[in-house]
Please model this.
Amino acid sequence: MQHPSSRVIQGKITLPYQWAMGETNTRFFEELRQGRIMGTRCATCGRVMVPARKFCSRCFRDAEEWVQVSDQGTLRSWVLVNFAYEGQPKEPPYIIGVIDLDGSDSGLAHFVGGLEDYDLEQVSQRVRIGMRVAAVWREAREGNIFDIEYFRPLG
Amino acid sequence: MPRAVAIIGTGQTRCGKRADVSYPELVREAVQAAFLDAGIGPEEVQAVVTGSMPPPMEGVNGPHLYWADALAAAGRALVRVATCGSTGVSVAHAAFYHVASGLFDVVLAVGAQKMYEGQPQGTMATVADPFFQRPFLAGAPGIFALQCNEYIHRYGLSEERLREAAALISVRNHRDALDNPYAHIKMEISVSDVLSSRVIAYPVRLLDVCPSSDGACAVIFASQDAARRLSPCPVWVKGVGYCGEEHFFADTPKVPWESATNSARHAYRMAGIVDPFRELDLAEIYNPFTFQELLVYECFGFCEPGKGCELVEKKAVERGGALPCTPSGGVLCTNPIGATGLQRVAEVALQIQGKAGDHQIDGVRTGLAHAMGGMDQFNGVMILCKEM
Model:
């Protein structure tokens, strides 16, 4: 709605950042580049956290034991993203899932892909909670979360 | 022991696209309305608590600095509180803490948002760490749709039944918003309108989701002595509860929702509430997504886990039902995020004072106000009562 007595001006704030990862995240992504998904186990409560954490947020103790988990798992939940926003990682529609990887006690958020089509009919037939999924690895890996391209439905 | 604390005035702006006013002018509109309602001026106020969403949404990186004049904050203590969606309830809690501590007698709480001026979803996608979760956040619809889908499948209920109950929640809120002069979206809709509306983030459709709004809300909190001196109709804060969860949103299941359950449990214990469904006369639930309202009924103990649909089907949560929920039209019809949680508090206070106008519920003595936010991460509850 235009207001004749209140002007609206256009502007933009663009600011560069540089984010230090810390040693644990750096090692996690180096392992990912090698094709391994790593977690750390809390010696107190025993849970395996993926991605690897420096400490357990529940016990508040350092988590020093590194363990490799499977690149396959079970889909805990999913969403078909069908709207656009500033800074979006890819063109909608696409699917985001929470995946419980075998050997991990925490879920991992990532894309679910490999479908021929992303219309609602197709998606609701192919994607369901509890289904098995497997990581599809990128050929040229760079040491970031996109070294896994997406998780594909198995079977 | 904390001191007794009362609400002695509330003020809300008309919400929607408010290009007619600058951001501070919008804030002042709510503050001025709260002063008028309380029948006091800024000279009575000793501290100001304020909040909004992360500043990139607003494009002014110190909103409380920019708003200072509109808050009458010069010469007074001022803090900014920000917990994403739950900001409004956090602002109310922090104002309560100020007075309950004995350090301040009258405190002004203000929440505001101008969502039309920035990029709300783009901002919300950047509340997560830049390494792991950010690409998979997809703003509020993405994160809450994941929870909705988890809810749909958690109890083995039919998806059709849940979608229908969620649609009824949308229809009810849209109908109620017609009677709220401050509400943003004012239109009558049907169940089939909801079920056939465009998919935003499946299973969430356009009419399952709140709008983006400009708006502000102000609430004045006072000590027992100040409330008795200044107000003919104080509303007493009987309980507060707030609970957070971990940063990695996939670390825990979100159904049932631990932080929602625990925030209510803490507030009930403080207020001496044992059976909320019978003891509460009203609940202003933070409901930006229809499915979430069903889940929150269960977490708040209004019904057993997995039975949220039944409350809707039996019309128990409508006006005239056993426990009316969001008779203001809720977040589903009005969502200036930084103000939204505080609007829940203001609406419960209005209902207890008998000042809710066309959406007044008869005989409200005890009510619950709620807000949630972050990546399914925070929940806050405040219980208000007519009696001290």
Notes: Residues 22-33 of chain A form the longest helix (12 residues). The CA atoms of residues 11 and 43 of chain A lie 51 Å apart. Chain A has a mean pLDDT of 96. Helices of chain A lie at 22-33, 120-126.
